[in-house]
Amino acid sequence: MSSALQSIFALPLRGLTWLGSQGTRAVAAIVFIAAAVPPLGALLRPYLTEAILVLLCISFMRVDLVALSGHLRRPALVAAATAWTTIGVPVIVGLVAHATGLTERAPGLSLALMLQSMASPMMASPALAALMGLDATLVLVTLVTATAIVPFTASLFAGLFLGGMLSISPLTLGLKLSGILSASLLSATMLRWLFGADAIQRHKQSIDGFNIIILFIFASAIMGDVVGDLMARPIFTVSLAALSFAIYFTLLTVTTLLFRRIGTERALALGLMVSQRNLGLMLAATSGALPATTWLYFAMTQFPIHLSPYLLTPIARRLTAQKPTAPMIAATRPAP
């Protein structure tokens, strides 16, 4: 029986392993395929929340939270980075949106920018940083602390800046975020207990491949209307795409400059983390009940997120090459 089962699952596992071995190439291709096949968006959108939960579970499953305590050697730096990404960024975005009148003139876009700023960093940030040769440890510790407090900070800033723009109350938003993260963490902990860390590491590329499939479901669900919007409102759609790139690289640049005293290479790693916002978490918490403009902006943000490895890796390699002795960090494929 075991031989029969092995033969049945051998081909799918080889397929997942091959897909996982494609790494950033597959992640970058996903965004274009998802945008180019609109019918998939309508088909897969009902499964958006489930896809987000699976992506979070896979990411948590690969993080040994017990081992994080050994990395907290610089609590002041971690606290500063956490405060910047969870408090500093949403405060600045909220104040700018209100000062410029964007909240009244374009409420859908203002809501998108606020939800983006309130979101925690993507769970893939440490793996992506390691893949680029950057300091993954600092990113990992900061990511965990930021994710832990985002239900509270998001609830606070939703009450301060969003008013009645959300279909749910700030308290409900915080509770749903907490529930989603807790459920994902609990599921990941159970999987690690059932299969063990060694088995997870041994089948890393197969898990990468499965992760890419789930990511494709997420990208298709969020980008299903992009082609239609581009045909109907080309200037507006392209403008949102340009804005998404501008905000991505503004967050990256400002964060790198703020933390440049710890070294450009480590500061760039933090910049990468801050610019990669987990919008899927916000979509799940709001059950996708968002204006069309908010959806479209979220779709446009997928382009800089998926293309950033190609855009930033040459810069990261130059920075790490300048270091006399660069400690090696084991890189894993990103699991967004």
Automatic annotation (TrEMBL):
The keyword Magnesium does not apply. The keyword Lyase does not apply. InterPro entries: Na+/solute_symporter_sf. This is Na+-dependent transporter. It comes from Bradyrhizobium guangzhouense. Gene3D superfamilies: 1.20.1530.20. The chain crosses the membrane at residues 44-63, 75-97, 109-131, 138-161, 173-195, 207-223, 235-259, 279-300. Keywords: Membrane, Transmembrane, Transmembrane helix.
